[in-house]
């Protein structure tokens, strides 16, 4: 579940003039995610879900020392050194719209990765 602004930003990435241009695989993944995602205006529903520009804490269900705390951003804002990951990465697509307590999974070269969303720090516009 997303808010209208995040859905609009994601749909904008599909435009032919959008940069960076999406390859067929990314385009297909984004289209599939959008088809499975609903939009809400309900603030109580949105405050507990991961959106674009939020920082999310992911913890392995089998080892609490295995954690990751990325910020979800649009592709042009991604910066791996600052833990800003594109919403179009496998982990980005997996966590977008997830709630605290949800288990999310995505494919990596080493196989499927499973983690639990333990907290969401909402982005506050300046």
Instruction: Look at the helices and sheets and give the structural class.
Output: alpha+beta
Fraction of residues in helix: 10-25%
Question: What is the strand content?
Answer: 15-25%
Taking the sheet with the most strands, its summary is: 4 strands, antiparallel
**Low-pLDDT regions:** none
- How many E strands? 6
Radius of gyration: 14 Å
Secondary structure tally, helices:
4
Mean pLDDT comes to 88
Trace the largest sheet across and list its strands: 2-1-6-5
Shape: globular
Order of SSEs: HHHEEEEHEE
Calculate the terminal CA-CA distance, rounded to whole Å.
24 Å
How is this structure best summarized?
The protein is an alpha+beta fold and 126 residues long. It has helices at residues 4-12, 24-35, 43-46, 90-95, and strands at 55-59, 67-68, 71-73, 84-86, 103-108, 111-121.
How would you describe what is shown here?
This protein is an alpha+beta fold and 126 residues long. Helices cover 25% and strands 24% of the residues. It is built from four helices and six strands. The longest helix is centred in the N-terminal third of the chain and has 12 residues, at 24-35.
């Amino acid at each position: 579940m997303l808010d209208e602004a995040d859905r609009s930003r994601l749909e904008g990435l599909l435009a032919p003039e959008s940069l960076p241009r999406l390859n067929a695989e990314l385009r297909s993944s984004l289209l599939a995610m959008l088809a499975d995602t609903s939009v809400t205006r309900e603030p109580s529903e949105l405050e507990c879900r991961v959106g674009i520009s939020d920082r999310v804490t992911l913890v392995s269900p089998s080892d609490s020392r295995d954690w990751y705390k990325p910020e979800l951003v649009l592709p042009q804002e991604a910066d791996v050194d600052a833990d800003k990951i594109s919403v179009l990465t496998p982990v980005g697509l997996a966590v977008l719209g997830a709630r605290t307590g949800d288990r999310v999974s995505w494919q990596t070269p080493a196989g499927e990765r499973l983690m639990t969303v333990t907290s969401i720090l909402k982005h506050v516009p300046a």
